[in-house]
Amino acid sequence: MNKPLRRVAIFCGLLILALLVRDNWLQYVRADELNAHPKNKRVTIERYSNERGNIIVDGKPITGSVDSGDEFYKYKRTYVDGPMWAPVTGYASQAFDASQIEKIEDGVLTGNDDRLFFDRTLAMFTGEKKKGGDVVTTLSGAAQKAAFKGLGNKTGAVVAIEPSTGKILALASTPSYDPASFAGYHNADAKAWQTLEKDKNKPKLNRALREIYPPGSVFKVVTAAAALENGAVKDINAQTDTPEGWKIPLSSREMVNHASGCANASLNRALEISCNSVFAKLGDDVGVEKMTEMAEKFGFNAEQFVPVRAVASVYDKNADRGGNALSSIGQFNTATTPLQMAMVTAAIANDGKLMKPYMIDELRAPNVDLIKKTEPEELSRPVSQKTAQQLQEMMENVVTNGTGGNADVRMDGVKVGGKTGTAQHGEKNAKRPYAWFISYAKTDQGSPVAVAVIVEDSAGTDREDISGGGLAAPIAKAVMKAVLKNRS
Amino acid sequence: MSVVTNTTTIGAIEAPSRRNTELALLAFAVVIPVFAYLNVGLAIDGEVPPGMLGYGAGLALLAGVAHLVVRKWAPYADPLLLPLATLLNGMGLVLIWRLDQSPRLIALAKRSYGAFSPSAPNQMMYSAIGIAMFVAVLLLLKDHRTLQRYTYISMVVALVLLLLPLVPGLGADVFGAKIWIRVGGFSIQPGEFAKLVLAVFFSGYLMVKRDALALASRRFMGLYLPRGRDLGPILTIWAVSLLILVFENDLGTSLLFFGMFVIMLYVATERTSWVVMGLLMSAGGAVVVGSTASHVQSRVQAWLDPFECLKTAPEGTNMAYACDQMTQVLMSFGSGGILGTGLGQGNSDLIQFAANSDFIFATVGEELGLAGVMVFLLFYGLIIERGVRTALAARDPFGKLLAMGLSGAFALQVFVVAGGVMGLIPLTGMTMPFLAYGGSSVIANWALVGVLIRISDTARRPAPSPAPNPDAEMTQVVRP
Questions:
Q1: Which residue from A215, A226, A476, B194 could staple onto A294, CB 3.0 to 4.6 Å apart?
Q2: Number of domains chain B contains
Q3: Which residues of B touch A48 (CB under 8 A)?
Q4: Measured between alpha carbons, how far is A74 from A68 in angstroms, rounded to an integer?
C-alpha cells in the first residue's frame, strides 16, 4: 500500500503548494490593488483614526477634532465659528471628502504627507500616536469678523489683502454654511448636505474666489491706469475731450452718465463722480489690446491659486470697439472675482507692485517644527510708481470729496482711497444691481490693507439705495479699521 | 582488566523515543502564543494584558498534561504532532481573543443578539475539553486495531451524526448551512465528529473488501474498471455526500467525505481507476448541484469575481451578502501585504459575521501578512506530512488506512477552508482546524491527533525483544 500512499502524500503536498502560491498572488501581487480598492474602508478608517491637525488664525485654531465614538471613523472635524471661516477652511467631511485648505493641505493635516515621514517614523518608535500637522494662515481674526459681521444676512463677499506682501487678511462669503454640520457620515450629515445643495442661495459657493461679477464702476481704476500708462492722459487734473452724450462706437446709443458735469471732466473729477462717458472714451482711445494687457497684468484672464483655486476674471480681448468701450466701464463681458478687485486695489496701494495673494503662511509638523513657509512673491508690475501714486491721489479724492465718503476711517495719519461701483446686470438691467466698493488704507509706513467688497442683493433695500457707497463702503471701512487697530 | 567489549549481536537497541524533543518543541509552542498574546495587548491597550499569566499557565498546563500522558502511554509517538497542534490551538486562542477586543464586533453582537460575550474563554474551555479528549483517546485506545471491531457500528454512528442536523427541533440553520445542532444551549457540529467515525468505518470496510475491489476488474482503455456490483460502496457514499449537499447546504462537508473515501479507496486498492471514477462523479455532482442550488450558485459567483458580483447582485439578496463577504475577506488579505499590520492593528473585523470562525484565516493574513500565512500553511503541511509518515510506518493495513484517511481528511479540510477564504475555490462553511472558534472542531481535531499519535506510537515502537533462546543458556561466552 505504500506506493499509493506516497502518491497521495505528493497530492497533499500539491494542495499546500497551491495554497502557498495563491497566497503569494493575493498578498504580494494583488496587495496594492486590494489595499487601494475603493471598497476598502481601511483607507478611510486610517484617515480618521488620528486627530487631524488644525488650521490656525492669529495663533489660535479655528478647527478641532473630536472623538465621535464611532466604531469606524473615530475622529470628526469640528469648527470654531464655522460659517465665518468656511470660505477659508472649506470642509473635511467623512462622507463628502474635503475642499479648499482642508483638501489642499490634507497630507499635512492628516500627517500622511511625505514631509512628515520622519515624524511618523519617530512616533512609531516612541509609541506616540500619529498626529496631523498644522496649517497657519495669514488671515486676521479681527478683519474676518468685521467682514462677516458687516455682510450680515446680505449676500456678498469681502476680500482683504495686505498690499506689501499679498497676505490675505479676510475672505468672507455670505450666506455661508457650517462645515461641522456634515463632518460625519451619518444620516444627519447627509441631510444637512442635501439641504445645502438644494438651497437656492448657494451657501456652499465661495463667492470671494469662485464667483465672477460684473465690476461696474470699480473697474474704472483699471481703465484709468491704462490711460495713464499709455499716455492717453498726461495730467489727471487736465480736461479731457469728452462730449456729454458720447456716442458708443459701432452703435447708435449714447453713453449714459448718472452724474452731471461729466462733459470734458478731468480724469480726477471723472473718477470722483464716476463718469461713464469719460472712461468709455478713454478705453476706446487706449484700444482693446492695451486695455487687455493692463487687465491681464492685474491678474485678469487667469486662474489664481491662493493656493485655493480662484476662477479667472474676464476682460474680453476679442471685443469690438463698442464692446471694448463698455468693457472699460466694467460692463459688457467684463466680470471679476472679489479677489481680483482686491488685487487691483492692493497693487495700486503698493505703488504699482502686485504681490501674489496667498493665505497659507506656514505648514507646521505636529511638534511645531516648520515644514514650509510661504515667502511673499511679486506677481507683476502693472503700473509704474508714478502712475500708482496718481491713482492713489484720485482714489483718495473719491473718499474725501466723492462717492466713497462712507469709507473714511477718520484716523490720524491714515489716508483712505477707494472707488464705488454699482453694476447693473440682467436683461435690460432689471435685476437688482451689485454694490461694489474697493478701497485701501495708507499710513506713512505704506499700506496695511486693501479691500474689495461686493453686496449682491439686499432684501429690504430700495433699489435707489443700492450703491457701492451706501451698502459696501461701510463694510470696507469696518475691515480697514479692524486691520489698522490690530497694527497699533 | 581490559576493556569489556559487548559482543552481543542480537538485542534490543533502544530506539530513540524523541520525547525530549517533543518537550523542547512544546516549550516553543507555549512561549510563541504567549508572546503573541502580549503583542495583542500592547498593540490594543498599550499595556501588558492582565490575563497573560493565566493564559500562559493554562496553555502550559494543557500542553504539560498532554505531554506527560504521551510520555507514559505512547512513548514512541511522533514528536511533532503534539507541539504543532498545541501551537496552532494557542495561536487560535490569541486570534480569537484579539477579535474579542474589536469594538466593531462587540457592537455587531449587541445589535444582533442584544449582548456580547467574549469567545476566548469559551475556546479555552473547548481546548481543555479537547486535550481531555486527546488524553482519553490515548488512555482508552491501547491499540488502534481494536477499532476494527466497530466497523459497522461506526457506519451507523456516522450516518446518525450526519443526519442529526436535519432532525426538526434539533438542527439549527446558521446562514443557510444546516450543519449545526443545538443541545441545551450548546451548538454542536456533528460533521466534525463524523469525520473521525467515518474514517474508522472506511478503514475497516476497505481492509476487508480491498482484494475484491482491486482484483475483480475488467481492463478497458488501460484502466481497470470495477465490476458493476463492486460500484455499490462508492455510489452509496457519493449519494450520501450529495444528500448532505442538497439538504444541509454544506459543500465543504460533502466534498470532504467523498474526497476522503476516494483517497482511502485508492490507497487500499492501488487502482487509479477509482480516482478517475471519483473525480468524474464529483464533477458530475458539482455540475448538477451547482446549476440547481441557489446557495451554491451565489458562492460560485462570489468566487468568480466578487467585486463585479457585488455591483450586479440585487441589494439584500444572499448573493450580494456572499459577494460582500468575499470582497471583505480578499481586501483583508490584500491589506496585510508581506509582513502584515501586526497583531491587533488590522481591520479584519470588517468581515463582521464569522470573523473569528470561518474567516479567522483572514485575520492571520491581515495581521501577520504573507509571511505569517505561509508559516501557518507550512504548520498544517507538517501535520499532514507527519500523518502520512505514520501511515507509511504503520505495520498493519488498518492502521495505514486509518492514518491516511485522517491525514487526507485533514489536508482536504485545510485546502477547502484556506482555499475558500483566499478565493482559490468557492467558499464553503468549514473551519480551520485548531485556529477557528468552535468547540466541535477543536475537540474533534484533538481526538484526531490522539488517534494519529496512537498509531504512530504502535508503528515506531521497537519490535519486542526476541523470546529468550533456550540455546542461549548453553553457549556461554567465555571471557578471558
A1: A226
A2: 1
A3: none
A4: 6
Which amino acid does the sequence have at A367? Answer: N
- Tell me the residue range of the domain where B285 lies: 19-460
Can you give the residue ranges of every domain in chain A?
209-360+378-487
Band of the pLDDT at B475, cuts 50, 70, 90? low
Position B372 pLDDT exceeds 60: yes
The three-class DSSP label of residue A415 is strand
Q: How far apart are CA B250 and CA A276, in angstroms?
A: 87
> Of A3, A6, A26, which is closest to B422 when you measure between CB atoms?
A26
Residue A55: φ, ψ to 5° = -100, 130
* Residue numbers of chain A with a pLDDT score lower than 70: 127, 425-431, 457-466, 488
Residues 429-468 of B with CB under 8 A from A: none
Rama region for B105: left / alpha / beta (φ>0; ψ in -120 to 50; rest): alpha
Are β-strands A55-57 and A134-137 bridged in parallel, bridged antiparallel, or unpaired?
A: parallel
Domain A209-360+378-487 has CATH 3.30.750.24: no
Q: Which of B364, B165, B365 is nearest to B247 (CA)?
A: B165
Q: What is the pLDDT of residue B312?
A: 82
Closest partner residue to B392 (CB to CB) among A5, A34, A41 is A5
User: Is the separation of the CB atoms in A481 and A142 below 8 Å?
Assistant: no
Higher pLDDT, A67 or B444: B444
Q: Which amino acid is at A152?
A: G
Which of residues 379 through 438 in chain B touch A, CB cutoff 8 A? Answer: 380-381, 384-385, 388, 391-392, 397, 400-401, 404, 407-408, 411-412, 414-415, 418-419, 422-424
What pLDDT score does B1 carry? 43
Q: Tell me: the pLDDT tens digits for A290-332?
A: 899 999 999 999 999 988 999 999 998 888 888 888 888 888 8
CB pair distance less than 8 Å for A12 and B380: no
- Rounded CA-CA distance B121/B96 in Å is 9
- B75 and chain A in contact, CB less than 8 A: no
Cβ distance B335 to A35 less than 8 Å, yes or no, reads yes
B374 neighbourhood in chain A, CB within 8 Å: 20, 23
Query: Is the CB of residue A447 less than 8 Å from the CB of residue A164?
Result: yes
Rounded Cα gap, residues B70 and A288, in angstroms: 101
Flag the least confident range among A136-150, B293-307, B448-462.
B293-307
Give pLDDT tens digits for B241-264: 778 777 777 778 888 888 998 999
Average pLDDT value for chain B: 86
Helix (H/G/I), strand (E/B), else coil: A204: coil
SS3 category, A107: helix
pLDDT at residue B371 greater than cutoff 90: yes
Min Cα–Cα distance to chain B from A329, Å = 56
Cα separation of B436 and B360, whole Å? 6
- Tell me the sheet residues that pair with A156: A174, A455
Mean predicted confidence (pLDDT) in B168-174: 71
Element (H, E) at B220: strand B217-220
pLDDT number for residue B35: 95
Q: Which residue has the cell 438691467?
A: A429
Point out which residues pair with A133 in neighbouring strands: none
The pTM assigned to this predicted structure is: 0.76
In B126-185, the residues whose Cβ lies within 8 Å of chain A are none
Whether the upstream peptide bond of residue A175 has omega within 30° of 0, thus cis, is: yes
**How far apart are alpha carbons A85 and B146 in whole angstroms?**
84
Of A64-68, B15-19, B218-222, which range is least confident?
B218-222
CB B361 within 8 A of CB B414: no
Coil/strand/helix, residue A386:
helix
Cα–Cα distance, B362 to B429 (Å, whole number): 14
Residues 6+ away with beta carbon under 8 Å from A208? A87, A157, A158, A159, A171, A172, A173, A310, A337, A338, A339
